[in-house]
Write a structure and sequence with these properties.
This protein is of the alpha/beta class. It contains eleven helices and twelve strands. The protein has one domain: Metallo-dependent phosphatases (Purple Acid Phosphatase, chain A, domain 2), CATH 3.60.21.10. Helix content is about 25%, strand content about 20%. The strands form two sheets. A seven-stranded mixed sheet has the order 3-2-1-9-10-12-11. InterPro entries: Calcineurin-like_PHP (IPR004843), Metallo-depent_PP-like (IPR029052).
């Protein structure tokens, strides 16, 4: 497992780490093409995933965003079924829909690996219906990729990794691990139309960088076992100020909305954006909340039943034509097989269960309000 730089002098080593020959040059550089301009690396010799663009995704259809899942596959599937994205066989059926999940699929609950297997499958199925699944990296994905298993549910290790933490370590931390190979590709931030999607938030300092540079440096630091990059010590991209952890805006908004919106305005100006959608900061109401005249949406509702004594709180955000609405699902396991008053949803995998579901929709923002 090779995950660290081997530097012989200040700033050297990234070329060897990436598997190419590179002469490192230290000095001023532009916002974009960090690897090419600063490290003088031949783009043709690099894995193309380093240059995949998430800066200006255009989408004309419906956008559905889901917050932190934390191992609760049933809440995820209840959302997907209620939003008519999948059928009773868990197959993607929706046409012209973009599904965005903003990270923290892993930890706390027991089904994190299974959820990612399923989401990766939906990523393959969705394009057949002219749809797309966009997965954003969260801080708990970062923690796992760097070997911090403090929040891993032991039951998950028992079920998926033969009760062997070393087995799990290989899958998530080794560059040859099945989950490392896939999760390291998740973008730390993306822009769809005029909407920024990120797990936690973005501050003024880091917003001086291009979205591509933020994604690239976050990935490179994770690949460096989360250690600060030797050739860029000005920023720790996986710290409290990085986009995977920065929660000042979402924590400040309920108490000092003016300050939060001031930071947000600065970020929007830098990226020509109008909206920010984040997870990470659990809403105590267990519902999606909005601030800054409908410009900020906090969608971590603490949905996972593993965090709420067995009670799930599935919610999702719907955006289309400048309108944003939240959908809150009140769910109850139908243990006695009684008739549900409104909607009944049956799930078959991983557990066969029936749920009575009552949905509450709330309009959060519309073009006339913004």
């Amino acid at each position: 497992m090779k995950r660290c730089f081997h530097s012989t002098s200040k700033g050297d080593g990234v070329g060897e780490f990436l598997g190419v020959s590179a002469k490192v040059t230290i000095g001023n550089h532009g916002k974009d093409d960090f690897l090419l301009k600063t490290l003088a690396i031949d783009k043709k010799k690099l894995d193309p995933s380093y240059f995949e663009k998430y800066d200006n995704i255009k989408w004309e259809g419906e956008i559905i965003a889901i917050g932190d899942i934390h191992g609760d596959i049933e809440s995820l599937k209840l959302i997907l079924r209620h939003a008519n994205l999948i059928n009773e066989n868990d197959e993607w059926v929706a046409e012209n829909v973009l599904l965005v999940q903003v990270g923290d699929v892993l930890d706390r609950g027991i089904y994190g690996p299974l959820i990612y297997d399923y989401l990766f499958q939906l990523q393959k199925e969705a394009p057949l219906k002219k749809s797309r699944v966009l997965l954003i990296m969260g801080n708990h994905e970062q923690l796992n990729l760097c070997g911090y298993f403090n929040y891993v549910n032991e039951k998950e290790v028992e079920i998926f990794f033969k009760n062997n933490f070393n087995n799990r370590f290989f899958h998530f931390v080794s560059t040859e691990g099945a989950y490392f190979k896939k999760l390291i590709l998740l973008p730390a931030i993306a822009k769809v139309n005029d909407i920024l999607f990120v797990h936690a938030g973005i501050n003024k300092k880091i917003s001086s960088l291009s979205l591509h540079t933020i994604r690239l440096k976050t990935r490179l630091q994770i690949e460096n076992m989360c250690r600060i990059l030797s050739y860029d010590k000005s920023m720790n991209y996986v710290s409290r100020n990085g986009v995977l952890w920065y929660d000042h805006i979402s924590r400040t908004a309920p108490y000092d909305e003016k300050e939060a919106c001031s930071i947000l305005s600065h970020v929007f100006n830098n990226y020509k954006a109008k909206y920010l959608v984040v997870g990470h900061t659990k809403q105590l109401t267990h519902g999606i909340t909005s601030y800054c005249n409908g410009g900020l949406f906090l969608i971590d509702t603490g949905m996972s039943l593993f965090m709420n004594n067995g009670q799930p709180y599935p919610n999702y955000l719907v955006a289309e034509n400048g309108n944003f609405k939240s959908v809150h699902l009140n769910v109850e396991v139908n243990k006695k097989g009684k008739d549900c008053d409104l909607l009944e949803i049956e799930l078959n995998n991983p557990n066969k269960q029936s749920f009575c579901v009552h949905a509450r929709e709330t309009l959060l923002s519309s073009p006339s309000e913004g």
